[in-house]
């Protein structure tokens, strides 16, 4: 949106200004078409509160929150706003010390000097002179979870037979992936990361090359770490290189040693989850809770584009947070559902799924009692690949959950972008790896505003959001009041 202006001294005032009108709105519902209907009464039409949807977006994606950067005070303000809405909607707290907020201890890492990429080309029993590339001149960071990594070079071309899928690579290998199909490149990259590759090198897109110099003026961000992170947490690094650097690496022999180094500092920090619970009324379904979730954070302040350095994240993922709040409003205002319902808004998804990983390790109910998780990620704009006002579910073929929701009226179809591997790219995957039937609902159509300052309120389609969310409300009520058992299909479990 607008070029950043420092609003920190006014933040509390701005918070109240946004919060109080939305509270009055949710209590008053001025028009009959938006009046909340009682929850828990299946068969009674449940309508989306359109003004509530807009109010949440107008606060969460406003310049006042400066992009809700992961682990920042702005993220905490967003979590506090969500907590206040959950209380207003009759959802009980399920965070720390009797409140809604989970305080997630993390190690905050900051790169303090430009990184370098060095390759020592091994030939026979001797090593030639190493070749070095500079950050901002030859390469940029796309994803970084480590400040140092090294591994043997492996090269793949997705245009050649056997170049896609899950080619065998040694654990810790650094893989150069080239090819004409960006979707295949990304799909192969995620497959190799899951298989244990330490880093992926790719050709920078033409649009990224235009911003190399400007982006290189800011040091790259490295993912924070949970203070109690476990050894099985995957490390995944992606670097985008200019064509000259890619050409030079392609001429080097496989097995050459690749090394990435960046000096960094570490300090104690936090991220924050907002967590609520609506306890079920049916003891027979006590161990079959349903979790609705989204992530609170976005990219905060970043590289200016056309004079705008606030990455508002209106679609990613204020829209998903808004959907969870609308579900909370509907379920919290009526009769208690038969199943227990959990509502979790995670912090620091953009920095390595830190909030959802902490939630997984410290759930308010035992993890084995969560029957399913529906994550909401980027539903603020329609996807041209599907019908209007339709959402899609990642990993549709993996479980019986999506088809059953669609059969009960949800405007929900299979993910039309399987090559993007979206199933493994959101917070749901953290839980899916622990056997929870966890999938993501989205309508992201690969729009050009993804992770750009232009992902703002002006680019949202509220008509789409209202219709899509509205189509889910009765199916969600059915789900939390039913005996239906979400299950992984054969071969579908991660």
Q: What's this entry about, in short?
A:
The protein has two domains: 8-106 and 270-480, Aminopeptidase (3-Layer(aba) Sandwich), CATH 3.40.630.10; 113-262, 3-Layer(bba) Sandwich (Glucose Oxidase, domain 1), CATH 3.50.30.30. It is 27% helix and 24% strand. The chain is built from twelve helices and 22 strands.
General description of the model:
By secondary structure, the protein is α/β, with parallel strands linked by helices. It has 2 domains: 8-106 and 270-480, Aminopeptidase, CATH 3.40.630.10; 113-262, Glucose Oxidase, domain 1. Helix content is 27%, strand content 24%. It is built from 12 helices and 22 strands. It has helices at residues 11-28, 50-60, 73-88, 182-195, 206-209, 212-216, 243-250, 314-332, 354-361, 401-407, 428-432, 462-480; strands at 92-93, 101-111, 116-120, 122-123, 126-127, 131-134, 139-143, 148-157, 174-178, 199-203, 225-226, 237-241, 257-261, 264-278, 289-295, 300-305, 308-311, 341-346, 370-376, 391-393, 412-414, 437-442. Strands 1, 2, 11, 14, 15, 18, 19, 20, 21 and 22 form a 10-stranded mixed β-sheet that branches. Strands 6-3-13-8-9-10-12-7 form an 8-stranded mixed β-sheet. Strands 4-5 form a two-stranded antiparallel sheet. A hairpin with a 2-residue loop joins β16 and β17 (308-311). The longest helix has 19 residues, at 314-332. The relative contact order is 0.16.
Lay out the secondary structure.
Elements: H1 11-28, H2 50-60, H3 73-88, E1 92-93, E2 101-111, E3 116-120, E4 122-123, E5 126-127, E6 131-134, E7 139-143, E8 148-157, E9 174-178, H4 182-195, E10 199-203, H5 206-209, H6 212-216, E11 225-226, E12 237-241, H7 243-250, E13 257-261, E14 264-278, E15 289-295, E16 300-305, E17 308-311, H8 314-332, E18 341-346, H9 354-361, E19 370-376, E20 391-393, H10 401-407, E21 412-414, H11 428-432, E22 437-442, H12 462-480
Parallel strand pairs: 8-9, 9-10, 10-12, 15-18, 15-19, 19-22, 20-21
Antiparallel strand pairs: 1-14, 2-11, 2-14, 3-6, 3-13, 4-5, 7-12, 8-13, 14-18, 16-17, 20-22
């Amino acid at each position: 949106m607008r070029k950043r202006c420092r609003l920190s001294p006014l933040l509390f005032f701005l918070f109240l200004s946004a919060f109080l009108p939305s509270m009055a709105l949710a209590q008053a519902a001025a028009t009959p078409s938006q009046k909340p209907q009682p929850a828990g009464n299946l068969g009674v039409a449940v309508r989306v509160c359109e003004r509530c949807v807009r109010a949440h977006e107008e606060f969460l994606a406003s310049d006042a929150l400066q992009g809700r950067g992961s682990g920042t005070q702005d993220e905490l303000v967003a979590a506090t706003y969500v907590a206040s809405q959950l209380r207003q909607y009759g959802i009980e707290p399920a965070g720390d010390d009797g409140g809604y907020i989970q305080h997630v201890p993390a190690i905050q890492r900051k790169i303090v000097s430009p990184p370098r990429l060095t390759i020592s080309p091994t030939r026979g029993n001797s090593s030639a002179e190493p070749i070095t590339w500079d950050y901002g001149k030859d390469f940029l960071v796309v994803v970084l979870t480590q400040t140092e990594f090294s591994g043997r070079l492996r090269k793949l071309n997705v245009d050649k037979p056997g170049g896609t899928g899950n080619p065998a690579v040694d654990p810790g290998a650094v893989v150069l992936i080239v090819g004409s199909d960006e979707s295949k490149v990304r799909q192969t990259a995620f497959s190799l990361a899951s298989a244990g590759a330490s880093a992926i090198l790719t050709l920078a897109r033409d649009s990224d090359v235009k911003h190399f110099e400007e982006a290189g003026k800011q040091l790259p961000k490295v993912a924070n770490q949970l203070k109690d992170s476990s050894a099985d947490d995957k490390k995944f690094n992606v670097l985008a290189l200019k064509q000259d650097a890619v050409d030079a690496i392609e001429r080097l022999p496989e097995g050459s040693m690749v090394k990435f180094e960046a000096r960094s500092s570490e300090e104690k920090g936090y991220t924050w989850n907002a967590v609520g619970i609506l306890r079920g009324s049916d003891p027979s379904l006590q161990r079959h809770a349903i979790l609705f979730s989204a992530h609170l954070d976005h990219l905060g302040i970043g590289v200016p584009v056309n004079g705008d350095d606030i990455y508002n994240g209106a679609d990613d993922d204020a829209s998903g947070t808004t959907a969870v709040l609308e579900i909370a409003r509907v379920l919290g205002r009526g009769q208690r559902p038969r199943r227990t319902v959990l509502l979790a808004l995670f912090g620091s998804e953009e920095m390595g799924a830190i909030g959802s990983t902490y939630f997984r390790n410290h759930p308010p109910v035992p993890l084995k009692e969560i029957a399913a998780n529906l994550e909401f990620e980027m539903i603020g704009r329609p996807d041209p690949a599907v019908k209007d006002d339709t959402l899609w579910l990642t990993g549709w073929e993996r479980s019986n959950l999506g088809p059953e929701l669609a059969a009960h009226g949800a405007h929900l179809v299979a993910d039309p972008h399987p090559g993007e591997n979206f199933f493994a790219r959101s917070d749901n995957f953290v839980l899916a790896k622990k056997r929870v039937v966890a999938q993501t609902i989205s309508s992201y159509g690969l729009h050009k505003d993804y992770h750009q300052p232009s992902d703002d309120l002006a680019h949202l389609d509220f008509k789409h959001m209202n219709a899509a969310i509205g189509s889910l409300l009765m199916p969600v009520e059915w789900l939390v009041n039913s005996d239906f058992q979400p299950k992984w299909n054969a071969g579908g479990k991660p």
